[in-house]
Design brief:
The complex is a heterotrimer of chains A (about 325), B (about 425) and C (about 250). Chain A is mainly alpha-helical and about 325 residues long. Chain A has helices spanning about 1-30, 40-55, 60-85, 90-110, 140-160, 165-175, 185-210, 215-230, 235-255, 260-265, 280-285, 290, 295-305, and strands at about 130, 135-140. Helices cover about 70% and strands about 5% of the residues of chain A. In chain A, helix 1 (about 1-30) packs parallel to helix 5, helix 3 crosses helix 7 and helix 8 (about 215-230) runs parallel beside helix 13. Chain A is globular, with a radius of gyration of 21 Å. Chain B contains 18 helices and four strands.
Amino acid sequence: MALFLVNVLDGFVTGLLLFMLCSGLTLIFSMMGVLNFAHASFYMLGAYFAYQISLVTGFWAGLLIAPLIVGVIGALIERYGLRRVHKYGHVPELIFTFGLALLIEETVQFFWGKSQLPFSEPAALDFAAFAIAGNAFPAYKVFMIAVAMGIFLTLLYILTKTRIGMTIQAALSYPETVQNLGHNVPLVFMCVFGVGTAMAGLAGVIAGPVLGVFPGMALQLGSIVFVTIVIGGLGSLWGALVASLIIGWLQTFATAYDITAEQVLTAIGFTKPELIWDHPLQDLWTLTLPQLGPILPYLLMIIVLVLRPQGLMGNRES
Amino acid sequence: MSIASKTPLTAGTTRLISLSNAMPWAFAALFLLCLPFVFQSSSALTIMNQMAITIVFALSYNMLLGQGGMLSFGHAVYMGLGGFFAMHVMNMVEDGLWLPLPFLPVVGGLFGLVFAFLIGSFSTRRAGTVFAMISLGVGELIAACSVIIVVFFGGEEGISGDRTMGPPVFGYEFLTQQEVYYLTVVWLLVAALLMYLFSRTPIGRIANAVRDNEERAEFVGYSQRNVRWISFCASGFFAGVAGSLFAINFEILTEENLNLATSGSILLVTFIGGAGFFVGPIIGAVVFTLLQTVLGLHTELWALYLGILFVACVMFFPSGFAGLIAMHRRPLALGNLKLLIKPYLKVAVPAITSVLSLAAILEILFHKRHGYGGGHEMHLYGIAFDSGAYQAVGLAGIIAAISLFLVSRVLPEIREAWDSANHAEDRV
Amino acid sequence: MSAPAIELKKLEKSFGLAKIIQGVDLQIAKGERHAVIGPNGAGKSTLFNLITGRFAPTSGGVFLHGEDVTGLKPFEINRRGLSRSFQITNIFPNMTVFENIRCGLLWTMGYRYSFWHMIGRQLDVTEKAEEILEQINLSNRRNELAGTLAYAEQRALEIGITIAGGADIILLDEPCAGMSHSETDLIVDLIRNVTEDKTLLIVEHDMGVIFDLADKISVLVYGEVIESDTPDVVRASAKVKEAYLGASLEEEAV
């Protein structure tokens, strides 16, 4: 039971982290119709910038400055790159952001090399916040939850209580009306892209000490982020939240419980073949739940797509 | 095929391929057959085989992207699965199954087709972003499975085989690389021709129509989903053929053959070459393989250069190299190509200099930062110097600035020449 | 007597709370040229979209030659012999004019999803496509990309694609929108020619065109058919005048 609670909290942290990426991605997608393939790359940039800044000023300044720099870079890329490609349509835009992801990964390797960087949580948060039946829960994870919740509540407040938020909401529900809002659409696009990428950058800063800062960190999370918003329903913020949490828990629980296929298969009455190493079903017998963990999100995506093509909470198909 | 029986070969336009269309194919065949006499080294043959496989793979990818308007981030799955199956069949041949090696790609292709059929059943319902995301998810799923299902994928080491165990074909046992080259090239020609012909069938044309305007296609009687599904299956078949050729050439397949990186690079290859043209992927595959093998020998930064080239391509010439070439058809038809030669030559020298000096800046900085063995001595363009010295970067920077300035001076002239080359009356 | 070419029974369509089509009953006989008129926002385009399967109706039914086609997909309805054009030009922009027409032909000429015919060698398709190009007066633009044509030419191409498949029920959505007088005359002649012996349902704002072409006219106001009769009767109808005038006054007031 105690272990269960710890896993619930751990999965919650992962889920919220995913949501910080997914919410920015969804905002950008809904407003601009662009699926930003490089979104996780901005997350990576956030972590790297924060590391570089932390060398000079310590963790906290990095937490504030790195997302800002990422946001500015995002806005500039929208202004001078994406906007150029916009006239060719959404598929070339997607290809552009894909190229951007490649380029950012190579650039990061150019400056920081291929190995993992020693980026750790600040000393002020390096203690156990509380313990559940002997399992310590680090204060840094509490901090991660606080930041993610803070972002989420701010977003919720802006979207439901402010004028600009209403406009964005209208645009989310009726994308074709964005053009008629009477706002400076290019400027709105640039800001949305900047804010979305800054949120990804912030997620990178707080995830860096836990998940590691290395050139593959964008790729590691990137695909999962896309799968999450497809499961939630492209363009749906609530769907993104639900799907993020589901995937967070799914992955955490899968790695935590070492259930093997052998246990399951024996329990339902099959007998394990003697010569397992030459058996055609050897992989089935030796399968474990932690092994399955990484593919569960993708399996879930396929199941959702077959049963409900528009995603869990999506209301439009494309 | 019933092509020959249906209508008699009367007018020139009704032939399977008219004479003018057949000429490029004949030249290509002759060229490919002669290549090994020019490049005889084993590494050259390996590069050419690699190129041929990439061409088949890229052409199959372009059946989706260029012909059908489907952006896939997981096409390596079909090449990889086709290759893995082909490898297993190759091992069955070693255990006594009768199958001459040249027919192996048919087997791999059929497996690619079966998987494309299954996955296409739900992924082709929508084009655009949704299709792209599903292809990405499926790609990741299969790549992740390859580590789990060891019996089939061989885990991290992958699976290997021996191509020489099959029955000899006209005495050839495919022991030498040259024999494998000819096998690959024949398959390249067959596959490319079939894909070309596919684009000229009713379903091939309707695939274009669905790409252009899926809704309108529905109002002339076609189910957009079925059209995409069929293209997807055909593309899966040829990807499987490419995978089998890979299995035959390298006799080993690993997770790398079906992961996201491979899927991404085939998108890059196709796009740089020009997705809107049949020859685009061919150009892209040649350029990519050369960059990867030749440039890769000289610099660690080749992937960075490739990334820059790709992003520049998306932004500035989205129809790729083939598009750049095709742009010159009109000046050629007007007989104005000669107007362009002088300005092109004029810009070539400073343009090449600026590219080389910008690359030099990157190389020097990279060397300084990640210098190996602690030394700062580096060799670039045949010059040895100390990468730690500011003079080196400074000099490269000055050369880059000057040559970029010269390029910007010539640009208006090029624009003017371009305009007049595209106008018939200016010739007077 | 045979079943009407198109029959609508209590057709309704709502978007959210807005009821756009509220109970339309309409019969269009075989071979009839039928026009739908009405003020802006009356639901004419929506009605077209319901008949052709672009939208599924909220309730009610659509019948072609007595067969229930309610809720079928556009391509299924097209295969039952109904073809339509669009108010906003809807062509294949990156294909040549000739290929645009050919795409309209392939299904009905039996080529379907064939990958065993070389399309260039199918003389029947080529001849038929050339014939239609001649008819819509675009033979000289044969090899241009459709997206590069002038507006009026694109409108003609739009009609060409629509009629190419030889459907016996043709729906045209504002074919003359945005055209000059001389262009309109050409298009009207074209429509008259190509719909010979066919059933035509047309939406058009240009009253000259309507009274020139139509055998019967239905007047749609706020999603309801308030009158459906011959041009003369409709012209004289007080109900129609009132509704039209009322609606246009309201429009001005807004």
